[in-house]
Amino acid sequence: MALVLGAAAVLATTCGGAFALIRQDRLHLILGFSAGAVLGVALFDLLPEAFGLASGRYATATVALFVGAGFFAFTLLNRVMLLHLSASCDPRTASRRGALGAASLSLHSFLDGVGIGLAFKVSTSVGVVVAAAVLAHDFSDGINTVTVILKNRGRGLRALRWLLVDALAPLAGVASTYLYSLSDAQLGLVLATFCGFFLYIGASDLLPESHQRHPKRLTATLNIAGAAVIWFTIHLAAI
């Protein structure tokens, strides 16, 4: 059952990415929705899961520290290791930045799969709820992966390759849980770190870009819509 739902996540991610590739003429609107969705995943999915899983062993302040560590680690990678991006607009540097964002999104998708696999080790009902939450935002994950590449000077073929990586990541994550296991507390800290990554990608990257040269009201509406869709589907899955 876990592998079947992992395969469903592959399909959901691919459909989202295909939509972003086909409608490049509406990229600013897709970016607006994606920014809200990324922040929604961080705030409404990863953060509560991180606190819930780690609270039995780690203090709230410790979990928050890992969120901050993820945020500033991504800042360091984006602003120091890729130092001259904004000044030089070097296509190679922009390409590396896009790859960094897509890789982070793919790693998150891998952890989605890990979450599904580990949840099924607890019980089938828990596994189904976790899988439903993952499927709810995997469509947005596909959009996010493609838009991160396209807005950093990437071409459609490069975006398609990263979409394939991101789409297969949940299935690989599910399969990996047959080889090892993590405690709830350890998984909580991993999710907290990726929450920090997503807060940076959404707030410091996608959100400003979506508002740069386009009508603000519609884009702002899509920012809110992206976050609202994630919140609604996650809570609907938990009913």
What does this structure look like?
The chain has 239 residues and is an all-alpha fold. It has one domain. 86% of the residues lie in helices and 0% in strands. The protein has nine helices and no strands. The protein starts with a helix and ends with a helix. Mean pLDDT is 77; it is low at 82-88.
Overall pLDDT score: 77
- The helix fraction, in percent, is over 70%
Our Rg estimate from Cα atoms comes to 17 Å
The oligomeric state of the chains shown is single chain
Return the string of H and E elements. Answer: HHHHHHHHH
**Structural classification:** mainly alpha
Poorly predicted segments? 82-88
Q: How much strand content do the residues show?
A: under 5%
What number of structural domains do the residues give? Answer: 1
| N- and C-termini, Cα separation | 20 Å
Describe the largest sheet.
none
Question: What is the number of E strands?
Answer: 0
Principal-axes shape call: globular
- Total helices: the number is 9
Question: What keywords describe this structure?
Answer:
239 residues, mainly alpha
In short:
With 239 residues, the chain is mainly α. It has 9 helices and no strands. The chain has helices spanning 2-22, 27-54, 60-81, 85-88, 91-122, 124-150, 156-176, 184-210, 216-238.
Topology at a glance:
Layout: H1 2-22, H2 27-54, H3 60-81, H4 85-88, H5 91-122, H6 124-150, H7 156-176, H8 184-210, H9 216-238
Helix pairs in contact: 1-5, 1-6, 1-7, 2-6, 2-8, 2-9, 3-8, 5-6, 5-7, 5-8, 6-7, 6-9
